[in-house]
Design brief:
Length: 521
């Protein structure tokens, strides 16, 4: 305001207050950023043209605007509903409120001041026209307007995500407790062992698919799950990997693999025991959660060795069968000798006893080899059972009383005590918090997805524009300093904006002077 007053004083230092009151006052409203950048340059330009304009911020009080005959502003964007193309480029630099002049009727008559202003008006107008006819400048202006619009959208989405983050942080505990119960139940189904002293929690590997990034992992760590056994995958990554899996198996049974086929056969899940799927498809009454379980059979060290030596087994079986056949042949010969001795009442008792001892040894050897052969031929225990189970988170919390009775010991280790109802000073039950968590999270996922999409598109567009500017050497000579972090083509846009603002102010002053002389322009 101080600089505005200085301009007015400079223009009217020899004019009485009464004369000033009769002036057709012009007000230009700019955003704080543009006012700070353009104020000094624009004031100097207008002083040279002998034009007085009050330059204020867009927040200028309404009651103070009444004294002005002309109120100008500069939106600097593409109006809503307009397509961002070459036809809308002029709209970016529009200055609503300016005087509409008829070019062929611009006549200075005998006024030296009006002559000076009209000359300046035509000069600035020519500069603007030349730029607006340049297709490279038009493309630059439109693309920059799109980038600025997207930048504003990015800020709005960031604010929304931050607000949702704050809301989620107040209700998220119930969600993690519910997941903890589901995972503990799943672990028990897999191992047949209840969760005791967090032992099984540290042995079973879990992947979370719920699009909350690492938030759910952090929440589970807070209720004593080990971070080393927790991993995360977004639904978009899951979909991408599923398509890749189908392509890899285009010629086999998994060409049209579903989620179950993929999870239980893809390398990405080879070391994962539980996959937790939450697609946030909840209703007022139901909150379905799908859990993929890979139920492993606990095998002995001997079984492990058999698995490792699986390739050697056929040769061992063949060798053992030949050895067994030899022992059986010896046994058959011994039995033939014993039968002869018994038939002919052989008198040599020691010889008979020796044959009997040999028979017993051979028989024992035959049984041992048969058992060994049977063991070699017996398949290794199956790797386990694979299935997908659906839980209802809402139902778990609705039936929390009976659940707590059944899971008292487990609840203590998981921190489920809060499920018994409201804690002192809290306004919502755990079930209500879970419902709020579901709503906030769904909104957070939508906002985050949109934010990431717009940010990625904006970054690519900005890179393309930088290359275009460099290739076509689009720079300007505006005297205003380029703000820190501003794009390198900003001086060119600043130069055009300043011309458009000056042109609008000049048009108003020309109209004022023409009207004072009783002329129409």
């Amino acid at each position: 305001m101080r600089e505005t007053k200085m301009v007015e004083l400079a223009q009217h230092e020899d004019t009485s207050d009464e004369g000033t009151e009769d002036e057709n006052l012009i007000l230009l409203l700019l955003s704080p950023d543009l006012r700070n950048r353009y104020m000094k340059i624009l004031v100097n330009r207008l002083i040279k043209a002998d034009v007085v304009v009050a330059i204020e911020e867009t927040s200028y009080p309404e009651e103070k605007k009444d004294k002005y005959d002309w109120i100008l502003n500069f939106p600097g964007d593409i109006p809503k509903g307009k397509t961002p193309d070459s036809n809308s480029s002029k709209l970016i630099f529009r200055v609503p409120g300016k005087a509409e002049l008829e070019q062929d009727k611009l006549d200075s008559a005998d006024s030296e001041r009006l002559t000076k202003i009209i000359e300046r008006y035509k000069e600035v107008q020519q500069s603007c026209s030349e730029r607006e006819k340049n297709p490279n400048f038009v493309k630059l202006a439109v693309t920059d307007a799109v980038l600025r619009s997207r930048g504003e959208m990015i800020l709005k989405y960031k604010e929304l995500v931050t607000k949702l983050d704050e809301k989620i942080s107040q209700v998220e505990k119930s969600y993690y407790l519910g997941i903890g119960y589901i995972l503990s139940t799943a672990i028990e189904k897999i191992t047949g062992v209840a969760v005791l002293d967090n032992l099984m929690k540290g042995l079973i590997y879990v992947m979370i698919v719920d699009d909350l990034d690492k938030r759910t992992q952090d929440g589970l760590v807070d209720i004593d799950f080990s971070r080393k056994v927790l991993s995360y995958m977004s639904t978009s990554d899951l979909s991408t990997k599923l398509l890749e899996f189908r392509k890899e198996h285009a010629d086999d049974e998994f060409a049209k693999a579903n989620i179950s086929d993929f999870v239980f056969n893809a390398a990405d899940f080879e070391k994962v025991d539980i996959v937790f799927f939450n697609s946030w498809k909840f209703t007022e009454d139901s909150f379905p959660i799908r859990v993929a379980l890979r139920k492993k059979t606990i095998i002995s060290k001997q079984e492990e060795r058999k698995v490792k030596q699986k390739g050697e087994t056929p040769a061992k079986i063949e060798k053992e069968e030949k050895a067994l056949a030899k022992v059986k042949h010896k046994y058959k010969n011994v039995m033939r000798e014993i039968n002869k001795m018994e038939k002919f009442h052989f008198d040599d008792e020691s010889a008979y006893e020796a044959q009997n001892n040999l028979r017993r040894r051979l028989l024992k050897d035959i049984k041992r080899r048969e058992l060994h052969l049977k063991d070699l031929k017996r398949p290794v225990k199956a790797g386990g059972e694979e299935k997908i189970i659906t839980f209802d988170l809402f139902e778990i919390f609705k039936s929390k009383q009976s659940f707590m009775e059944r899971m008292a010991d487990k609840a203590n280790s998981l921190g489920f005590g809060s499920l018994l109802g409201m804690n002192e000073g809290e306004k919502h039950t755990s079930f209500e918090k879970l419902a709020e968590m579901a709503r906030y999270s769904k909104d957070w996922i939508k906002a985050s997805t949109q934010l990431n999409k717009i940010t990625s598109q904006t970054t690519k567009l900005a890179e393309q524009l930088d290359q275009f500017v460099e290739k076509n050497e689009l720079t300007g000579t505006a005297g205003s300093p380029v703000p820190a972090g501003a794009v390198k083509y900003q001086p060119l846009l600043d130069e055009h904006i300043l011309d458009c603002l000056e042109l609008a102010a000049l048009s108003c002053e020309i109209s004022n002077l023409a009207e004072a002389k009783g002329e129409q322009v």
